[in-house]
Design brief:
Layout: H1 5-15, H2 19-30, E1 40-47, E2 55-60, E3 68-70, E4 74-77, E5 80-90, E6 96-99, E7 104-107, H3 135-148, E8 159-163, H4 170-186, E9 192-197, H5 203-210, E10 215-222, H6 227-230, H7 233-236, H8 240-252, E11 256-263, H9 268-275, E12 287-290, H10 296-299, H11 309-323, E13 343-344, E14 347-348
Parallel strand pairs: 7-8, 8-9, 9-10, 10-11, 11-12
Antiparallel strand pairs: 1-2, 1-5, 3-4, 4-5, 6-7, 13-14
C-alpha cells in the first residue's frame, strides 16, 4: 500500500493531504510485521513528524506482506523509522477503559467475548477475559474503576459507552442499559449513556432509551453489500432502509445518533449511494473505520481495489463531500481506525487527543 517514506510523501503531495493521515490510513489497512507474538496489540504512537501529539492505535500484527514493522520501541516504514512506540498491551476484551482522558468510559459489560461476531471482528483472536457484570456488581465495578483511576467519583464523566456484541434481542439490551444508568447515577454520573448496537430499532425501544436520560445511539451498520456473508444475523437482517428508519426514530426523540461503517468492505459506489440516506438522520460524526484484516483469510473480504492507498483516499474524499456541509467532524480519540486524524477536507482537526 505504501512502499517507503518517499512513496508516502509522493502520495501526500499528489492528493494534497498531510503525510500523517496518509500514513495512518495505510498503517491501519496494512497492519505490520512484528516480532511481538500477538495477532493484535494496542499501543501509543508518537509520529516523528508530530512528537508532541501522542495517539492510541489498535493494530493487526504478523502481517508479513506489510511495509510497516513495529516492535516494542518504534514503527518503521520501508526500513525507515517514522515513530516511537510505548504502552504496548494485548488487545484483550477488558471490562472497561477510558478515552479522552477520563471523560469517556467504555464498558464491555455484557461478555463481549461470547459473541460469535462478524468476520472483521477480532474477538476470536482474544482471550475471553470479560465475564458479564451482573446488575448488583455494576455500581461497585464503576466505583472501583473510578478509584483505580484516581477520581473521587464519576461526576465529571461525560459519556459512558456500552460497547458489546451479545444482545440478541432489544428488550435484553434495554434491561441492561437501565441497569447501567442506575449504576451511573449511583456513582454521581449524569452524563450521556452511549450504546453501540444493531438491536435497538423499534418505536418502543426508542421510547425506553429516551426515558434513560441523555442517550446516544450508534447503529452498527458496518457494510451494505454481502451482509449475510460478513455480518452476524442480528446485524445482517437489517436493511439499509430499516437502519435509516431506526436512526430517524432516535433523532425524533432528540437522541444523539450516528453509526459505525467499515471502510474497505463495499465498493465505493455502493457505499456512497447508501450512505447519502444516513446523512439527514445523523447528529454526530459517524465511526468510519478502516478495515483491518487480521490474517490472510480476512483479506478475502476486502472489496476489489481497497488494497491500494489510492482507493482509500478516493473513499475519504467522497465521505468528506457527504458530510462537509453538516459541520460534523471526526475526533481521533473516538475512533483509532479513522481515515482522519489531523485534517478533514483541508480543515485542521483537533488532532490525536487521547
Amino acid at each position: 500500500m505504501l512502499e517507503s517514506v518517499r512513496h508516502l510523501e509522493q502520495v501526500a503531495h499528489k492528493w494534497n493531504i498531510n503525510t500523517e493521515d496518509v500514513l495512518l490510513i495505510a498503517l491501519n489497512a496494512s497492519g505490520a510485521r512484528s516480532p511481538l507474538a500477538k495477532p493484535r496489540m494496542r499501543f501509543r504512537l508518537r509520529l516523528d513528524s508530530r512528537p508532541d501529539q501522542p495517539m492510541f492505535l489498535i493494530l493487526s500484527l504478523g502481517r508479513q506482506d506489510s511495509s510497516f514493522e513495529l516492535d516494542e520501541h518504534e514503527l518503521n516504514l520501508g526500513g525507515v523509522k517514522v515513530g516511537e512506540v510505548d504502552g504496548i498491551e494485548d488487545d484483550d476484551a477488558v471490562l472497561g477503559y477510558w478515552r479522552n482522558g477520563t471523560k469517556m468510559l467504555t464498558l464491555n459489560s455484557n461478555a463481549r467475548s461470547q459473541c460469535t461476531g462478524c468476520v472483521f471482528c477480532p474477538n476470536t483472536l482474544e482471550d475471553a477475559s470479560d465475564p458479564k457484570i451482573g446488575a448488583l456488581d455494576l455500581s461497585g465495578y464503576l466505583a472501583a474503576l473510578a478509584a483505580n483511576s484516581g477520581v473521587e467519583d464519576l461526576s465529571a464523566v461525560e459519556t459512558v459507552t456500552v460497547c458489546t456484541g451479545c444482545f440478541l434481542y432489544e428488550h435484553l439490551a434495554v434491561e441492561h442499559l437501565t441497569e447501567v444508568r442506575s449504576a451511573m447515577r449511583g456513582n454521581g454520573c449524569t452524563g450521556t449513556l452511549h450504546f453501540l448496537s444493531s438491536v435497538l430499532t423499534s418505536e418502543e425501544g426508542m421510547d425506553a432509551a429516551a426515558g434513560l436520560g441523555p442517550f446516544h445511539l450508534t447503529l452498527t451498520a458496518e457494510c451494505f453489500t454481502e451482509r449475510r456473508q460478513i455480518l452476524k444475523e442480528s446485524k445482517a437482517k437489517l436493511t439499509p432502509a430499516e437502519m435509516v428508519t431506526a436512526l430517524s426514530r432516535a433523532k425524533q426523540r432528540d437522541l444523539a445518533t450516528d453509526f459505525t461503517y467499515i471502510v474497505g468492505l463495499d465498493p465505493i459506489e455502493d457505499a456512497i449511494e447508501n450512505l447519502k440516506h444516513f446523512v439527514p438522520v445523523t447528529t454526530t460524526f459517524p465511526r468510519f473505520q478502516t478495515y483491518q484484516a487480521h490474517n490472510p483469510f480476512m483479506d478475502i473480504y476486502r472489496t476489489p481495489g481497497s488494497d491500494t492507498i489510492e482507493w482509500h483516499l478516493t473513499m475519504r474524499r467522497h465521505l468528506e463531500e457527504l458530510f462537509l456541509a453538516t459541520g460534523l467532524r471526526p475526533q481521533w480519540w473516538q475512533n483509532y481506525r479513522s481515515p482522519w486524524c489531523f485534517t478533514f477536507a483541508g480543515e485542521d482537526l483537533a488532532g490525536a487527543k487521547i
